[in-house]
Amino acid sequence: MTNSIGEIEFSDLILATGTNTTENHPVIGAAVKRAVRRNNGKLIVIDPRKIDLVRYADLWLRQKPGTDVAVLNGLMNVIIGESLHDAAYVAARTEGFDALKAVTAKYTPERVEEISGVPADDLRKAARMYAAAGRASILYAMGITQHISGTNNVKSIANLAMLCGNVGIEGGGVNPLRGQNNVQGACDMGGLPNVFPGYRPVEDAGARAFFEEAWGKALPGKQGLTVVEITKGALEGTVKALYIMGENPLLSDPDLSHVEEALKQLDFLVVQDIFPTETAQFADVVLPSASFAEKDGTFTNTERRVQRVRKAVEPPGTARQDWKILSDLLNRMGVPARYGSAGDIMEEIRRVTPSYRGITYGRLERGSLQWPCPNEEHPGTAYLHRDRFTRGLGLFHAVEYTPPAELPDGEYPLILSTGRVLYHYHTGTMTRLSSGSMERVPESLVEIHPADAERLKVEDGRPVTVTSRRGSVTAKARVTEKSPRGTVFMNFHFAEAAVNRLTHPSLDPVGKIPGFKVCAVRVEAARDAGPETSIGGRAGTGVLSTEAASSVRGGGNT
Amino acid sequence: MERGVQLTIDGRSIEAAVDETILDAARRYGIFIPTLCFLERTTAVGACRVCVVEVAGSRNLVASCCMPVSPGMVVRTDTEKVRAAQRMIVELLWASGDHNCLTCERNGSCALQDLVYFFRIEKPRFEIQPPGYPVEKTNTMIQRDLNKCVLCGRCVRACNEIQVNEVLDFFMRGSHAKVGPAFDADYIDSSCVFCGECAEACPVGAITMKKARFGGRPWETRTVRTTCAYCGVGCQMDLSIHEGKIVSVKGGGKDTPPNRGSLCVKGRFGMDFIGHPSRLKTPLVRRTKGGKLEEAGWEEALDLIASKFKAVREARGPDGIAGLSSARCTNEENYLFQKFMRAGIGTNNVDHCARL
Ligand code: SF4
Ligand code: SF4
Ligand code: SF4
After folding, report:
1. Which tens digit of pLDDT belongs to each residue from A182-213?
2. Cα separation of B164 and A38, whole Å?
3. CA angle at A278 for the pair A272 and A281, rounded to the nearest 5°
4. Considering A155, A177, A199, which residue would you say is the last residue of a domain?
5. Overall number of domains in chain B
6. Model confidence at A547: pLDDT above 70
7. CB nearest B276 (choices: A253, A295, A433)
């Protein structure tokens, strides 16, 4: 996020798009609702689904899935056409306006209505409302990024915010809400194939020399493979060994069957996790690690806030904190690692990462800090780009709308969109063991619009089979107007109805993020199988020789 | 804060901001005024009248949580009249409910118990007449025993004004006022999202965390402040630990960013996985290809990993190896993981599933 969570409830206007905030980031959702109900803030929701926030919104634009760029360009078309943009800000702080103007000129409200289904007048209203607001904050999440046009979606959002002078001010900003708790930190720390800690490119010889000096080893200068490319590499036999820490790609990756095949092709797979996950069943070595409550360290939240994680209880059995395991392995691979505590690692991180330089465990005891925090006297940074952008002037990226990779057709007439629900998290390994979450949402549901349901003879609460070009899964139908006509929605928390058996592995060409949000499917009422027989995803659960695997299953059902 | 209002409380001269109440100003100066229905960040309603004070020139006692300061105001917080009124209220509250501290989870952390103690009340003057509601046990997260409810409305304001979930309200049931979801439904049958804000706001044992029941009393537990492991909000939370187990989770710090004491259902009630029997407890190794995973010691497992990685690197070069780091591990661990791949193995094939 360019701005802070604490600013949201005092924004004059919030534009929420592709974020089901109250379910996925509930505490931020509450801040949005307080802005509306208590502080007279305005709220515009742009989302195909009738999410909870719609109840609180002044305006709801229900676009067809995957048409975000068209809608955002349409908003800018109106704003520029009616000269509602912040001309002084655009002149002083940005470049590329003319190109933006030329592209958005093509997206008249009428044309956007044709593409997206959003009524032209609503689009005009939203544009005027956004432009009229003093401080406007844009929130977005996976609903924006998980498209093959994800990178363009994000650029369009930044364009809109800059156009109205909303970047670099308190209460404004372009604010991505990260799904998993330490996505921000994992990226900051260089858990990416193209950058070292602090986002210094691996191809940059200077950066490489710096880290070679710091780590005492020669380093490769070629960009590595991304998640989805690693899977592909394994299938093609170029990647032979894989080390997975704390992830369960067997449920989270697009096109699951592919991933399963890839893992089987490997010569050697190491999985380090707290549970015997679906992925662990394919491992050659499984290392038991400590959960967050059993370890010391830091997480960096979606507003760049570095916060302490503190050990509260002992890990079970001989399970170890991941940083200890990694230290042992580093030593074995000839890189001396003599860390006595997580704090020692932070000292090294500070030395090599300028934006973390001022962050010490001592300071964190007194309160969290938001990076950039360049020195120990620096208070941290609540919002970015106050006086200048990282590159100097803010650059408008004129982008065109491109349709999703897979559109509905005669054979697969519906759009499938995937996401999360309030009560579960990611692949469900943690929340499925919580009695409360299972009480509320015990299984995966296929949300389907009443009109589609009637046509397909699908009844609420009865099993349906959802089939794409890649596979098929069965789950119970939930007939609801939450999803628009022609679109079904499923979550990816449940192995029994592993929705990623259906999704399309096409990638956004730049961000390399799979286009989860849109793929084509058909839905049929399943033979009355009952929920039990639909459990097919946990194939191989019995592979593990410990008592653990079976109790995951049992535990999930209690 | 804009200062500038001079007033006197209990003989001390005090400078308050124009928009402060008597209670705000007194608290800032460390002058104790008991409260019950007052809940920070929500509308002050002055409903319970436990916070009454005497203001010179005013015939009636005033609720200090609602009364703005004014220049020259003379306030007394501890006169006979004030204490008698407060005491009466506390006795009435006691008598109107089933306040049996022996089995109450809030024993030792209860506002009503504190007030009874503060006013040295041995026994209420009135007959004890609890309303006789059944205890709500229809979910495993939050237990409601409205026989202990003092109708302060804090849960209602917490739900509507802090979390803005708009589930709770007051309504009449027979001769009794009651708080709860619409149509007097149980939480599990209502639109409640189990954020637990109401339970934390409740000053007594009427709304409690069910799993904490008999899990260790306030003075036996240890609290550890940490960061939620679920979503990217990164809520600060206080884990209550008793005998090596997490018994409950509270929002960490009413003024602490980013969540100011709020949590959602995952952070609040999603910690069962930590002590779950299905956790991995020992390294597992597949000693023959196609064989079973079997228990192993750490040395064996780590040596095997190192030798296999070295062998693959020998045969295929470092790019034959790849690693997936984790958006759920700490910064320190992510840092070491990429260092391991880059410096230890010699490849940039490191990514994590955050794109997904
Ligand atoms: S748990 Fe949350 S949503 Fe449910 S009643 Fe309490 S405050 Fe409201
Ligand atoms: S349930 Fe608790 S918070 Fe709600 S009105 Fe009763 S005593 Fe107050
Ligand atoms: S408590 Fe809920 S909102 Fe807060 S970090 Fe955890 S999952 Fe996110």
Report:
1. 989 999 999 999 999 999 999 999 999 999 99
2. 9
3. 70
4. A177
5. 4
6. no
7. A433
